[in-house]
From TrEMBL:
Official protein name in the record: Transporter
Parts of the chain that traverse the membrane: 64-86
Pfam families cross-referenced by the UniProt entry: Ion_trans_2 (PF07885), IRK_C (PF17655)
Keywords per UniProt: Ion channel, Ion transport, Membrane, Potassium, Potassium transport, Transmembrane, Transmembrane helix, Transport, Voltage-gated channel
MF annotations from Gene Ontology: inward rectifier potassium channel activity
InterPro entries in the cross-refs: Ig_E-set, IRK_C, K_chnl_dom, K_chnl_inward-rec_Kir, K_chnl_inward-rec_Kir_cyto
Amino acid sequence: MPSFLNHKHRLKTNDDTGFSNKVEDFGGRFINKDGSFNIVKQGVPIWQRWSIYNWLLSMSTWQFIFTLLLFYFTINIVYTSLYLFFGMNSLQGIIAKSCWGRIAEVFYFSTETFTTVGYGRVNPVGHAANIISSLEAASGFASFAVATGVMYGRFSRPKAHISFSHNAVIAPYRGGHGLMFRIVSFKNKHALTNVSIRVTASLLVHENGKNNYKFYELELERKHIDNLVMNWTIVHPIDDNSPLIHLSTEEMKQADLEIYVSINGFDDVYANNVMKRTSYITDEIIPNAKFVPMFHESEDGKTTILDLEKLNTFKELS
């Protein structure tokens, strides 16, 4: 490890991050770009560490819709197979002549039973078919109750509608330089109040003959704002109190620099506190660049226009 990192032990460190400082313990970044922790847990039985409710709440909207449709078609295929196992004569009212047509009618009967629609033309005959249809109706009731609860949980859960700039920049700041990135609340009429932010830098530091991770809470130009109604450019002055002082881009790479960001605020729509996090590694930090303004006055002069497409727009300086 190069000697330029030796002075970092004189700066105040943050020992409360929850991460280990041992180099051999980690692979890749600490925090993924989407804010999730870059860690996979092993050694615990899957039924203890995996929760289907947590899984359904945390997946994306399109994954959730696909999962519901997949479950719906899969369980009806299972029940269709059970009806077919006892033969076509276990159901009466089927009028299709072809084999696939009759199978399709059995499948449609299964969906009608599962959803308790019950159109009435096809009905079960005999104890076996009636037992299967009874179980299917009961499982349909239970499935829709669970799906309704999960949907309510997903829609009612407070979410931080905040976007981070994909890149951070090192830009001129008060006669020196500063590390900067931007955030914005992207929902119309959806702003955060009492917003606070915490930024931590992790660096590989050579100390006592060993290379260890050190975590430094970065001093910011401003750690708190009353309202996040426009974009907010977070600035860390790179001065003598900064662990980034005198570090070139190549030296940041050697030091495995990662900037961990955590933001908290009160959302008056949800009437609850929300939180979001992300991180920046060296490849996502643009040296000698400056963000372009995101907002301008409307043509009639009565409104401020905030252009969200410019969140990550910057220009490199000569």
